[in-house]
Amino acid sequence: MNSIFNAILTLGGLGLAFGILLAVASKVFHVEVDPKITQIKDALPGANCGACGYPGCDALAKAIAEGKMTANSCPVGGAETTAKVSEILGVEAGDDSGGKKVARVLCAGCDSISKKKFEYEGIKDCKAASMVQGGDKACDKGCLGYGTCVEVCNFDAIKIEDGIAVIDPEKCTACGLCLEACPKDVIEWAPYGQEVVVDCKNQDFGKVVKDICEVGCIACGICEKNCPFDAIHVENNIAKIDYEKCTQCMICTEKCPTNAISGELEKRKKAFILEDKCIGCTICAKNCPVDCIDGEVKKLHVVNQDECIGCSVCFEKCPVDAIEMR
Amino acid sequence: MNYFSIFIGAVLVNNFVLAKFLGICPFLGVSKKVETALGMGVAVTFVMTLASIMTYLVQVTILDNFGLQYLQTIAFILIIASLVQFVEMFLKKSSPSLYEALGVYLPLITTNCAVLGLAILNIQNEFNLMETIVNSLGAAIGFTLAIVLFAGIRERLELADVPESLKGFPIALITAGLMSIAFLGFSSLSI
User: Fold this and answer.
1) I want to staple A138 with a disulfide (CB 3.0 to 4.6 A). Which of A96, A212, B112, B118 is the partner?
2) β strands within A192-270, DSSP E
3) Could you tell me the pTM of the whole model?
4) Of A223, A178, A181, nearest in space to A200 by CA
């Protein structure tokens, strides 16, 4: 009996002694830390994933508090984290989608519209499939659709639909794992919210592409000629969009003979002029790339809705904010 | 047994990592760069020496006195964990630069089996206080030596043409094994 008491007393005493020592030490050796850092740290996801470029959430919290990084530096946290951090910093959260990028599969050649070279019956994995003559797809740049990217995605953002991978931009955190995993290099970065994308990477000549896939880019250059913003160019037999210049007016989507450029025309925005604000300055009419705004000086301008392409040039140019995009 | 032979024995013959296979986790985890490996080595040296002095004193004054040797493991873990905490707080206040340099490694040492292993081995070998200090210092330097050498090799391996299937940890483990074999040569050292 005595020995039990001895054991309890000894261990309890040791624990108590060390506890008191640590409690005293934490007071004596207390270091003032910017309360912002602790607050920001609590707001961050705390996964220490390193996607921001810092070794962990602690380091990023410190950098944000010191102003080295912006509130939306955490690529994983998304809008919610940005809002919380902004609140702590006392700044406006701003447009979260500003710098956010997402991964995008640049291939739309699903099973029903693209041809196959042969019937592949090996391991269901893109890397394995691509070792056999570059995969079963006739297009040597296309998505094989065996789901190697689905396997590596930690965020459940990729799905295989009708033989090609499709990435959900809402779930994508831009971690870049799928870009590395894809043996075909068919996944690339695109800005978040970018609807208009050339979903093709094939650099063969038009006829070759047309023979193997219905929605491939045949490098005809029609998009290049029709783009009012000089934002799309055909280089090496493939159209490429300059996302900085693109206003998502979807003219290229409309004109593309093979439908290789994505974009839902129904979702296209239209410009509307607010009657009470318009001062009749004609600036919008002068800048409209498709001349769909009728306007005489000092009279209310009218947008011809059938012709409007929703490029939002007028919206940006209007000096009195009299134009709405909806 | 004189102090010199204890020291050399701890550094080379009974090298903690390569002969006793203790503290493998930090050995593999923090050995990508010589610089960080050295930081870890210094931190371990610091904690090991302090911890073994403390555990020795507790063993002799409390556990042996009350015949509570069976509480050794749990008591030592308690001591090491609180000691590391204390050292961390102390460094944060008194030497922020050293604290920054050691960074995450310091708290990691809490769960390093080499520290506990050393404390228990000191008691098992029935060392006195001075011998304990020499042995701990030797063991810690042995650990530092092993991890720095290993980091040096791994830095060079980064540039080497390693077969795809062996890249990363596999080749590191093979390297560790080869180093262990090399250190076995010291076992015939008679001092």
Assistant:
1) A212
2) 232-235, 238-241
3) 0.51
4) A223
Helices B129-159, B169-184: inter-axial angle, 10-degree rounding: 130
- φ, ψ for residue A138 (rounded to 5)? -65, -35
Burial pattern B12-41, b for ≥16 Cβ within 10 A else e, equals bbbbbbbbeebbbebbbebbeebebbbbbb
ipTM: 0.73
| SS3 at position A54 | coil
Q: Is residue A210 within 8 Å of residue A114, measured between CB atoms? A: no
**CA pair distance A280, A298, nearest whole angstrom:** 4
Contacts of A37 (CB under 8 A, 6+ apart): A61, A62, A65
Q: Which of B1, B3, B6, B45 is nearest to B146 (CA)?
A: B45
The amino acid sitting at A38 is: T
pLDDT above 50 for A97: no
How confident is the model at residue A92, as a pLDDT? 61
Buried b or exposed e, range A177-199, using 16+ CB within 10 angstroms: bbbebbbbebbeebbbebbbbbb
CA distance A300 to B11: 90
Q: Give the mutation candidate from B30, B87, B93, B165 for the A interface (greatest A CB count, under 10 A).
A: B93
pLDDT, tens digit (0-9, with 9 covering 90-100), for A174-221: 888 888 889 988 998 888 888 889 998 888 888 888 888 888 888 888
CA distance B73 to chain A (A): 11
If pLDDT is split at 50, 70 and 90, which confidence band does A96 have? very low
Alpha-carbon Rg for chain A, nearest whole angstrom, is 28
Q: Contact, B144 vs B42, CB < 8 A?
A: yes
Interchain contact, A15 vs B78, CB within 8 Å:
yes
Interface test with A, best of B50, B69, B73, B86 (most A CBs within 10 A): B86
